[in-house]
Amino acid sequence: MITIKDIAKEANVSAGTVDRVLHNRGGVSTETEQKVNKILKERNFKINLIASSLAMKKNHTLATLIPNFDQQNIFWKSPHSGIEKGSQEVKAYGIENHIFTFNQFDPNSYAKAFRELIKTSPDAVILVPIFLKETKAIIETLKNKKIPYLFLNINLKGSDSLCYIGQKSFEAGILAGKLSNICTTEDDEILMVLTRKNLFNHEAIQDRIEGFLDFHQKSNSKTKIHKLQFNQPDEVFRSREKINQFIEKHPKVKGVVVPSSRVSVVCKAIDKEKLVDLRIIGFDTTPQNIDFLKRGDVTFLISQKSFNQGYKSIITIANFLVHKEIPSNEIPTPLEIITKENYMFSHSEERKYSIE
Amino acid sequence: MITIKDIAKEANVSAGTVDRVLHNRGGVSTETEQKVNKILKERNFKINLIASSLAMKKNHTLATLIPNFDQQNIFWKSPHSGIEKGSQEVKAYGIENHIFTFNQFDPNSYAKAFRELIKTSPDAVILVPIFLKETKAIIETLKNKKIPYLFLNINLKGSDSLCYIGQKSFEAGILAGKLSNICTTEDDEILMVLTRKNLFNHEAIQDRIEGFLDFHQKSNSKTKIHKLQFNQPDEVFRSREKINQFIEKHPKVKGVVVPSSRVSVVCKAIDKEKLVDLRIIGFDTTPQNIDFLKRGDVTFLISQKSFNQGYKSIITIANFLVHKEIPSNEIPTPLEIITKENYMFSHSEERKYSIE
DNA sequence: TAAGTAGGTGTGTACGCACACGAAATTTGA
DNA sequence: TCAAATTTCGTGTGCGTACACACCTACTTA
User: Fold this and answer.
1) Which of A38, A326, B47, B208 could hold B259 in an S-S bridge, CB 3.0 to 4.6 Å?
2) Range of B220's domain?
């Protein structure tokens, strides 16, 4: 391994000078700079990240603004875990992360959580920008204080965030379209179960719906697509005659697509004997969804690997702060197709981490 | 962040003593040890991996024995890249990896490459144990020299390798069964295209076939499964009348499964107008396979993420050497389902690395 | 012309933290 | 009381970073 000292010796300068050249910190004559650069290249010198990190230790503070989770709304648990894991890893780099949570249905709690967050004067912020209006104010504050921020899971185009880490929802919808197309024939019909004005990220869900329809349109399939709307996710179960009657009336419906993460609720609502004949496609690997996948009721789940999203957010921000590594504007999460046969090989990192 | 010094100060001992307690290196009185341990626990002390690595620098040597790749046999390129990436990352930890390649069809080149490898007296070895007899001799040598080794991509049960990193082939076959089942109806028939005594890991391919058949048997599907054998992968294309005639004779064949990584060859052999009606399932995301996926000829590819396998091998071995972290006996790679709609979101790390 | 100054260029070194070895201090046993 | 054994301490090491300071040249001013 070649060290700065080796380079310095060869160039007849001190280690400090090599360091200045490496970081373009100025104060080096063009002649010396060229000489050093030449040797750096010849020897293929790479900064030792370990030593660099140790030396750079500066105690950065991160802050994360993310919805809380409970039994009913477990979706946010995965990103939480990923963030936890990432935080653990970067601790050694002198980076401390604080999580501030809010109620995903309450804009006030969002604003309030941010007020708490900003008191800690973090060096960078990870945001799940659920509420548009409040987010604009938040971004304004961050901009004034020159605090870089990153969007997690939900994107807000037009703002100059450091980067967006999340799923491409439209493309996820296209994939759902493809899968529904594959697991039905042309004569079959497909039912899409919607929840009006969904809980939080209704934009993402809208994008999925559009992607789904886009696929069916572009592929010239003659498959008829029905839509069934509910006002509340729990209404699907409460008034389950609605969906069961619909299926009885439309015996050609063989595929069901649920663009939200609540496919488990839909499965619960549909009569068991009807489930057998249906191919059901949903999103997100919540424990409830996985349950119905295991039973064979759900055929495909499209996962956005939210654990990885959380994890990656921390790592990305950390690399930005410590190594000034500027991330690409958008880091799309893989669209993982999960079935009963492969779910146990997915999310192994998440499981491993949860057990510990 | 709590440092060893903090602990030492609080316990009224020196940093050295704390270090001895941390690593159970002995030479500490029971009393002091308990006192230090108590404070370690209270303060939830975690070793700073960065500083630890820097201090531990020991210059380990790794060696990797893996088949070479070329245009015809590009399968091994991905693990190569993953290994390269991993090697880069661990270089800072004073770990140097050397790759020794061999011809995957020639046992002698395998043995010869190993003889070269062992001359470098590595501290650990990554093996792709293609040839049984030669591998047994290799393992014997490694055991005598007490060099730990890890199997990559191909497993050899019964040997006491540190760990196996690769796909569960039987389960991959089951998944292929499920996918073929989903994208055909009960009246359809499925064709499996085999290559007799496949190139290298015919065991893995045999497992896939068995998994595939197992799924169809257990699911009580009445779908008829045909098998078509070729002696050489290139024979599929050379004598392509064989496969085309077969499809003409069996118009009910709607699904094609290729358990090797050569689904592209099969696609090339089948007449274009016939391809339209077929749902084709293959394994591994070689560039050729991806081409046919993009065109829409291949419906599903089951990926074993061989880039990640290579990468993980290095990281696992490195953690074992540096941090004495003993890996679990088997690290299965996710069974990724790749379609035209999601392939661009997969393997992003591999692509990112290849570009650089 | 000598003294003074500013700017550019380069050096030396403390620091971050854990690790490990030689040396010192203390205890034990004879 | 002395030697041996046990316990503990002090310090150099790994490598890059960044700051204080030293040095040199060129130019200004008395």
Assistant:
1) B208
2) 169-303
